[in-house]
Amino acid sequence: MKARLFKIACMMQVDTDRNFTTSFSVDRSPREAYDAIVDVSGWWSEDAEGVTDQVGGEFVHRYQDVHRCTIRVTELVPGRKVAWLVLDNYFNFIEDQAEWTGTEIVFDIFEKNGGAEVRFTHVGLVREYECYEVCSNAWGGYLGGSLRNLINTGVGQPNPKLDGDAPAHQNTATALRADRAPQAS
Q1: What is the mean pLDDT of residues 17-28?
Q2: How far apart are CA 146 and CA 63, in angstroms?
């Protein structure tokens, strides 16, 4: 019993001052969760281009003129883990464009009660960052909504190509961005 409690305590030791972490459970296998995560255009952005399912692959995520980033796939363990490194990033609503550059995005996948638990950590996304409120809110929508739905039902709610309507989970992030947008003088 003590060993089990120690293991649980170790799994929960995440430096929340230096990272953004969230998790969710699904009724599918860890392999199905993994397959959905690497299908970036199925849950994050239909405009994603590049290689998302090979270590060393790079892809570009875009959302209108609001956000674009270049990401390198750094680790893939089918049914267990997906890790990315942000190589370059741009947000139209903050001043410091380096906030995401060099950060890591990690999906750890565990078998849980016949399904899977996905633990997401954006290593280096900190509360002090100008984008934190918008970014953590947006991650919540993408992960707890779009990715979770893609895993469970096969249908996510990614950002559409430029001419489409934004998914509902963008509403709060859009309002937060409007509050944070640099004001014209």
Answers
A1: 93
A2: 15
At 102-159, the pLDDT tens digits run: 999 999 999 999 999 999 999 999 999 999 999 999 999 999 999 999 999 999 999 9
CA distance between the termini of the chain: 62
Sign of CA dihedral 93, 96, 101, 107: negative
CB 103 within 8 A of CB 121: no
Report d(CA 139, CA 24) in Å as an integer.
Answer: 12
Report in angstroms the alpha-carbon separations of 32 from 36, 128, 149, 178: 6, 35, 12, 36
Instruction: Cite the DSSP H helix spans in the chain.
Output: 2-11, 30-37, 40-43, 132-141, 148-153, 170-180
- Please report how many Cα atoms fall inside a 13 Å half-sphere around the Cα of residue 38, on the Cβ side: 24
Of 71, 77, 85, nearest to 34 by C-alpha is 77
Helix ranges (H only) for 54-185 are: 132-141, 148-153, 170-180
Kindly report each contact of residues 153-158 with a partner whose C-beta sits within 8 Å and lies 24 or more positions away, as own/partner. Answer: 156/36, 156/42, 156/43, 157/43, 158/41, 158/42, 158/43, 158/44, 158/45, 158/46, 158/48
Cβ density class 30-60: b for 16+ within 10 Å, e for less = bebbbbbbbbbbbbbbbbbeeebbeeebbbb
